[in-house]
Amino acid sequence: MAKVALVHRRDKFRAAPESGARLKTLAAAGKIEVVVPYQLAALVGKGGVLSAVTVEDLDGRRRDLPADVLLPFFGLAASLGPIAAWGLALERHQIVVDPASSETNQPGLYAIGDVAAYPGKLKLILTGFAEAARAAHSAFSRCRPGEALHWEYSTTKGVPGR
Predict the structure, then answer these.
(1) 80 FRET partner, CA 20 to 30 A, in 44, 89, 94, 161?
(2) CATH topology classification for 5-66
(3) Residue ranges per domain, the chain?
């Protein structure tokens, strides 16, 4: 029998009101198990095949949830956590980066997405994808100085395997 479990680190959600109401309705109907306050601790499996996820509560108590698929999602609240103590240049709880490369003030360390800050930044998912490409390009040059990086575009090369 197929089951769905939602694991969340606390019993409050920052979801849109409609999403929160729908979650409560599904949970009340037994169509989804809400596992709170837990967070992912380990993956269990053999030969590259997932069989369970181990979750842990704030007191260190662990629980295995049978699983053959894991869909990890991240919340909407950006928090630097222990990264804040790494000596990075910060501005309003965000990491200051060079907009041309996504590199931080620590050479060879890059930041992208909602944690990255630079003048004119647009907080959009699309922006994060572009920042990831810039960071990867810059990191390649750092790791392989003098070697050319050749980009291939799906719009000109077509769909892989066709």
Answers:
(1) 44
(2) FAD/NAD(P)-binding domain (3.50.50)
(3) 5-66, 81-143
Six-digit token pair at 121?
């930044």
Give the Cα separation of 113 and 105 in Å (integer).
16
CA-CA-CA-CA dihedral for 11, 124, 86, 75, to nearest 10: 10
pLDDT tens sequence across 73-122? 766 566 788 888 899 999 999 999 999 999 999 999 999 998 999 999 99
> How does pLDDT run across 25-44, given as a tens digit for each residue?
999 999 999 999 999 999 99
Whole-Å CA distances, 67 to 55, 61, 64, 70, 71:
12, 19, 9, 7, 10
φ/ψ (deg, to 5) at 79: -140, 130
- Determine the Cα–Cα distance for residues 98 and 155; give it in Å rounded to an integer: 28
pTM above 0.70, yes or no: no
Place of tokens 């698929």: 69
- CA proximity to 53, closest of 3, 7, 2, 1: 7
Distance in angstroms (rounded) separating the CA atoms of residues 18 and 7: 19
